[in-house]
Every structure is written in structure tokens, then in C-alpha cells.
Write a structure and sequence with these properties.
Length: 753
């Protein structure tokens, strides 16, 4: 590629990425939050003056933290929790500002109670952060001259909360339709990236995975784990009340994406055997090219949704795939004998091409839905959409089981309280102790529930603070007007909020600007030049304290691995039972089909949780790490088992006319029973014939020949039998991996060095 062409290509790619970011749901959410802050600050400033506006902005920050993209149902309750807790704490800090010892003694239990909100999971984290921000910004105000002044400031803080909650409810209703489109587009971009990852897998050279067929799955597993979280976020919004044609179209696209995930998992099957034949390299390269072309089609579809355009018709790759299948068929017929390995690999190559056809059909269906040329099938969604979205109510149940010494949420709350108390004591002894809140702010945003997250936040926070402090110092050196100051705070808040979960370095830069300029509005700042050195020093100190306390009462991933492994085994067992029972389904909207969808979701979610925990464990001290190699094997075998079950599901639902259902009914039931026995019982207690190597126990499955019939022109029941046999083998391998993991976890771990 010529240099000028390369430059133009890179420029276009960069512009494409920037445009997708600017049109994303998280940037729109950040812009909405920033505009809301500006509106509330402007209203309070016009009515009550600059000081009132500054305190109202603190209240806005409390209500703003939980204002994330989500369903409309339960939005009000979600927004008011942080203000209801934070405003009284704001008042308490105001009253204690003149009593350093009393303030320190108050901050420790208040921090503990705030971080207990982490027991609510992902919903609780923004609430905890919002509550902490209220307290810490209250520390940045000048000392109140009287309790009356403290009450007035608290009133304005509460007013800011109330006004922003009203704004957020209106804004979320107005932007709901756009959020649905953006989340769907973002999901499609993730699917396109996954298609390209599969293309790389298909085109991998022979022997690249070594002797272990699960090798090389790490990248796919991490992408699948990220996709699982993204899918749930999209479900929560897109599947909520899909009553209008536009909503139904987006919900229909989501359902297609869910099916594509199954096809993508199944597309991994048999690749290791097919790649053993060097003469299949060209065919595999061609299939990989088709995957990349489909990824490009999905990318263009996502861009069309973001730009409110009608996408171009999808390319049909059926002819290319049919040619590959015919070539493989010719190769199979010219082999020396029915049992020849080349014939088997040729048949498997045809299967790889055929599964690519399913994805081709899915991509075409996605674009047909977007163009209005197809009607979404929403029978299951209309009947039971609430089953597929996250609960929005605030339950006390997580707190009833919280009070156990080994509970991660409890340990993190204690850890955070001790870190904040230590930071406060150290900060008050520093020459610039008047800015102790900045040290505590750094501790709060850096200290996470796991060491991996804390280390990542530490580095990003330090880098972001240096850059943000320079920007804020330069801005304040210009002696900006109140309007310019409010605008700076608004923009900084919007950027910080938008990228908090995506690119924390950007958030750290914006948050530094926000904190410095906000404190300037609250009359806590001194000269900008001195503030720069102060903030850098405070940030380094806070990051160091957070890093040190990450090792205090640590919740090592090792402690939860056993539970996650059990969850994976249960989920795979239920998914297998429901998948192998799909032969009994006569209509798409029957209860068994719905149960299967729920079981499928749990299987993917359970495996994703295990993958994410294993990734976090990589940053922990070696002495406390779980058995990572075994966990990778377990994840790979689980992923392959999902692939086999997905392939069986596809044959039962999509190719029923090529099946002898009477002949496979008993083997399906037997396979379900055998998989259940392997996954639910320890290896030593498995039924006769079951082992970690996966010996087949059912006579019908043991009799599966290698010279399988043509899978596209004859009865494919023998292929179902082969999948069942392989699924049994993989279930035994999963169980064997799990037992070895549990045995190593049961052994006492030495203390970390």
C-alpha cells in the first residue's frame, strides 16, 4: 500500500471511529447530564446568586452519578436514592467542618455506609459514588459562619438535586427512542468485531493452536464476556414495552443478534480438525473473507442506524459458500475410502461453510428488518419481556446476606472506610491540608473492589490528574467570568460522566478539571499556580493510599471462583436439558422454548462472569491466584460445549425436515441424562463409562460412524448423534476440569508476598 493511500485510509478509519463515539449512547448521556447541570445551575444562579448555584451544582453531581442509560421503569427511584442519602450527609459535613476530629470520626462510618451500596451490584456503585461526592465537595466549601448558613447551603444542595431529578426524568423520556437505536448500533458494532475475530480463527494456519483445541479461545471468550454485559444493557432498554413499529424492529434485531451469538459459537466446531489439512487453507481463507465481508455489512448497518439512514441491501454470500460446499463434496467423493481422514475433514469443511450460511442469513435478516423488508418475530418478547430484563426495584435482600466476614461487598466497605480515615488523617497533617478533600476524592474513585481494577484506576487517575490540573490551571489563570466557569464545569462533568465506564483516562482528565473549577466556585481555591502542585501531590498521595489499602481485607478472586464454577456447571446442565428438549417444540411461542431462552442466557452469563473473574485474577499476587491454566481449560471446554449444544439446537429447529425425530428421541433423552450426570456429580461418582476424557456411555452414541452421510442431501440424524457424543465428552471434560480446580482451591493458599 502506498504511503499516501495508507494515510488516507488511516484518516478515514480514525474519522469513522470518532464519529461512532460522538454518536454513541454514552456520549449522548453525558451531554444530557451536562446540559441538565447547566440548566439547574443557571436557574439557581438567576434566582439566588452565584454561591447558591455553586452549592446546587454539588447536589446535581449527587443526582447525576446514577443517571445512566437504562429503562424508564424505576428511573425515579433510581435517581432519588443518592440525594436522599447524600443531602443529610452534606449538612453533617457542613456542621462538622470546624471540628477536624469530629469530622474525621464522622467520615469513617459514613464512608462505610455509602460503600455498602455496592451490595446492589452495578446499580449500587453510582449511588455510592454520588453519596461520597456530596460529602467530599461539602468539605471544599468555606467554613460555615453559623448553623444557619450550613442549612442554607444544604437547602441549595437539595434544590439542585430535586431540579436535576425532574430534568433527568423528562430528558430520559425524550431520549429513550434515541437510546434504543444507539444501544442496538453499539451492539451491532460489537458483533462485527466478533465476526472479525472469528475470521482470524478460521484463517489461522494449521497447528497454530497446538495440541490443545481450547488454545486460542481466550480472545473470543473475553469478547463474548463483554458482549454478554452489552447484551443485557441493550435488553433492558430495547425490550422494554416494544409496542411501536420502530421499537419492534429494534427488538427483532436484538433477537437476531442473540441467534447470531449461537451461530458464532457453533462456528468454532471442527476447525481444529479441518485445519489439519493443508489443502483446505484456500477454502478456509475464503470463508474467513466472507466473515470479514459480513462484519463490514454489520458495521454499515450500525452506522446507518446512528445516522438515521436506510442501509444498503446486504450482500448475499450464498453462492460463494455453495461453491465451497460443492468443492468439499467433490473432494470427499474422490477420497480413497469411506473412512479416509480426508473424506471426514472434507465433510467437516462443508459443515463449517454451512454454519457460515446461517450467519449470512442472519446478517441479511438484520438489514432486511432495518429496511422494512422483513417483519420481526416478537411472540416471546411480547409475552414475557420482563423475564429478560434486569430488575429495577431496590430490594433489601442483598443486605440480609451481607453480614458475613468473607462477603466482598462488606470487606470493600470496611476497606474504603479505613482508607478514607487514613487519608483524612494524613491530609490534615500536610502543609496544604485545606485541600484534604482532593486526597479523599482520589481514594474514592481509585479504590475498587478488586486489585486489578484499583491498579488500572491508579495509573489512569494519576495521568489524568496531571493533564487535567494543567488544563484547569490554565483556565483559572485567565480569570474567567462566572458564565465561563459554569460552562467549564458543565463540559467537564459531561465528559467525565460519559466516559466513566468506557475510557477512564478521559474521565480522570475531565474530573480533575471539574474538581478544581468546582472548588474554585465554592471559594476553596487559592492561586492557580499553587493549586497545580497541590493537586498533583494530593493525587499521588490518594492513589498511593488506595493502592496500599487494596491489600487490606482483600477479596481475592480465588474466594469466589468455586461459586462461579458451580454456577457454570448448573447453567450448562440446564441449557443442555432445554436444548436437547427442543425436538418436542411445535410452535415458537411455547413455554419450553421460552424456558430454553432463559437457560441459554444464564449459560452465557455464568461463563462470562467466570471469564471476567479469571482476567482480574491475573493482576493478583501469584500466591493467591486460582489455578489459571485449569480455569482456561474449563472455559474453553465450556465454550465448546455451548457450541455443540448450539449446533444441535440449530438442527432441531432449522432442519427438522431432515431429521428422523423418532430415531433420535431416545438418544436425545439419554444424552441429556448423561450430560446431567457428568456435570452434577464429581468425576469419581460419574456413571459407568464417564470420565474426564469423555468416554461415551450410550450404545447408540458409541455406534456413531466416522463415514457420516452427506449432511445436505440425506437424513442428518447421524450428525445429531455425533454432536451428542461430542457434547457428552465435553461435559465430562468440564466436570473433570471443575473437580481439579476445586481440589486446588481447597488446598490452603499461602499468604501473598
Amino acid at each position: 500500500m502506498k504511503p499516501d493511500v495508507l494515510t488516507r485510509w488511516l484518516g478515514a478509519a480514525r474519522r469513522e471511529r470518532v464519529l461512532r463515539v460522538l454518536l454513541s449512547d454514552y456520549v449522548l448521556n453525558g451531554a444530557s447530564c451536562a446540559f441538565g447541570m447547566f440548566v439547574v445551575s443557571a436557574i439557581v444562579h438567576l434566582l439566588f446568586g452565584a454561591e447558591a448555584a455553586a452549592n446546587a451544582t454539588v447536589g446535581v453531581i449527587a443526582a447525576l452519578a446514577p443517571d445512566l442509560v437504562g429503562p424508564r421503569r424505576g428511573k425515579l427511584v433510581h435517581l432519588v436514592v443518592a440525594p436522599l442519602i447524600g443531602v443529610p450527609l452534606f449538612l453533617a459535613v457542613q456542621l462538622l467542618r470546624g471540628h477536624p476530629v469530629g469530622l474525621g470520626l464522622f467520615l469513617v462510618p459514613a464512608t462505610f455506609l455509602a460503600f455498602l451500596g455496592m451490595a446492589w451490584g452495578k446499580r449500587g456503585a453510582p449511588v455510592a459514588i454520588g453519596v461520597m461526592l456530596v460529602m467530599l465537595f461539602s468539605m471544599s466549601t468555606p467554613l460555615a459562619a453559623s448553623p444557619g448558613q450550613a442549612l442554607v447551603r444544604t437547602f441549595y444542595c437539595g434544590l439542585g438535586c430535586a431540579l436535576y431529578v425532574v430534568y433527568a426524568l423528562v430528558a430520559h423520556t425524550v431520549l429513550n427512542a434515541r437510546y434504543r437505536t444507539q444501544l442496538t448500533a453499539d451492539l451491532l458494532l460489537a458483533v462485527a468485531a466478533l465476526l472479525r475475530a472469528h475470521a482470524r480463527r478460521v484463517a489461522a494456519p494449521p497447528g497454530s493452536a497446538g495440541d490443545d483445541p481450547t488454545a486460542g479461545l481466550g480472545d473470543l471468550l473475553r469478547r463474548q464476556a463483554a458482549l454478554a454485559d452489552q447484551l443485557q444493557t441493550t435488553r433492558d432498554v430495547v425490550l422494554e414495552a416494544p409496542r411501536t413499529p420502530r421499537r419492534q424492529m429494534l427488538a427483532g434485531m436484538l433477537i437476531v443478534v442473540l441467534e447470531m451469538r449461537d451461530h458464532l459459537v457453533a462456528s468454532e466446531l471442527d476447525l481444529d480438525r479441518v485445519r489439519q489439512a493443508a489443502d483446505h487453507a484456500h477454502a478456509l481463507s475464503e470463508i474467513a473473507g466472507i466473515y470479514r465481508d459480513m462484519a463490514a455489512d454489520v458495521d454499515r448497518l450500525a452506522d446507518a442506524l446512528l445516522l438515521h439512514q436506510t442501509p444498503e441491501p446486504a450482500a448475499d454470500h450464498q453462492a460463494r459458500l455453495a461453491a465451497l460446499r460443492l468443492a468439499a463434496a467433490d473432494e470427499a467423493t474422490t477420497s480413497h475410502a469411506p473412512h479416509d481422514a480426508a473424506a471426514v475433514r472434507a465433510a467437516l469443511l462443508r459443515g463449517v461453510a454451512y454454519r457460515a450460511r446461517h450467519l449470512n442469513d442472519a446478517v441479511r435478516q438484520l438489514i432486511a428488518l432495518a429496511r422494512g423488508e422483513a417483519t420481526p418475530d416478537l411472540a416471546v418478547v411480547r409475552a414475557s419481556w420482563r423475564l429478560f430484563v434486569s430488575p429495577t426495584d431496590w430490594s433489601l435482600q442483598p443486605f440480609l446476606t451481607l453480614w458475613h466476614w468473607r462477603q466482598p461487598a462488606l470487606r470493600h466497605a470496611i476497606r474504603a472506610a479505613l482508607a478514607v480515615g487514613t487519608g483524612y488523617v494524613i491530609a490534615t497533617l500536610l502543609p496544604w491540608g485545606s485541600h484534604d478533600y482532593w486526597v479523599l476524592l482520589t481514594i474514592v474513585v481509585v479504590l475498587r473492589g478488586s486489585l486489578a481494577q484499583t491498579l488500572e484506576r491508579r495509573n489512569q487517575r494519576v495521568a489524568g490528574t496531571v493533564i487535567g490540573s494543567l488544563l484547569a490551571t490554565g483556565f483559572l489563570a485567565l480569570h474567567p467570568s462566572m458564565l465561563a466557569t459554569v460552562l467549564a464545569v458543565t463540559v467537564a462533568q459531561g465528559v467525565a460522566h460519559a466516559f466513566a465506564l468506557r475510557r477512564y483516562t478521559i474521565t480522570a482528565v475531565a474530573a480533575s478539571v471539574l474538581g478544581l473549577v468546582q472548588s474554585h466556585m465554592l471559594y476553596a481555591g487559592t492561586s492557580p499556580a499553587f493549586a497545580l502542585l497541590e493537586r498533583i501531590g494530593d493525587t499521588l498521595l490518594g492513589a498511593g493510599i488506595a493502592w496500599a489499602f487494596a491489600y487490606v481485607l482483600p477479596s481475592w478472586e480465588r474466594g469466589q471462583i468455586a461459586d462461579l464454577v458451580r454456577r457454570v456447571l448448573r447453567a450448562l446442565d440446564q441449557h443442555a436439558a432445554q436444548s436437547l428438549g427442543l425436538a418436542r417444540i411445535d410452535e415458537i411461542d411455547t413455554e419450553p422454548e421460552l424456558t430454553w431462552r432463559l437457560a441459554r442466557r444464564e449459560a452465557y452469563d455464568a461463563l462470562s462472569a467466570l471469564v471476567q473473574a479469571t482476567a482480574r485474577a491475573l493482576a493478583e499476587p501469584r500466591a493467591v491466584q486460582p489455578p489459571l491454566a485449569l480455569l482456561e481449560q474449563l472455559q474453553g471446554h465450556s465454550y465448546q460445549l455451548l457450541g455443540q449444544l448450539s449446533a444441535v439446537k440449530s438442527m432441531l429447529l432449522l432442519r427438522r425436515n431432515q431429521l428422523n425425530l423418532d430415531a433420535i428421541a431416545a438418544p436425545l433423552a439419554q444424552a441429556a441424562a448423561d450430560i446431567d450426570a457428568r456435570l452434577t456429580a464429581p468425576t469419581a461418582a460419574s456413571p459407568p463409562g464417564a470420565s474426564a476424557t469423555g468416554a461415551k456411555s450410550d450404545p447408540a452414541l458409541r455406534a456413531v460412524p466416522e463415514d457420516l452421510p452427506d449432511p445436505f442431501e440425506q437424513d442428518i440424524s447421524p450428525w445429531v448423534m455425533r454432536r451428542l457424543a461430542l457434547a457428552e465428552s465435553l461435559a465430562a471434560s468440564v466436570r473433570g476440569n471443575a473437580d481439579l480446580i476445586n481440589a486446588q482451591l481447597a488446598a490452603p493458599a499461602p499468604p501473598p508476598t
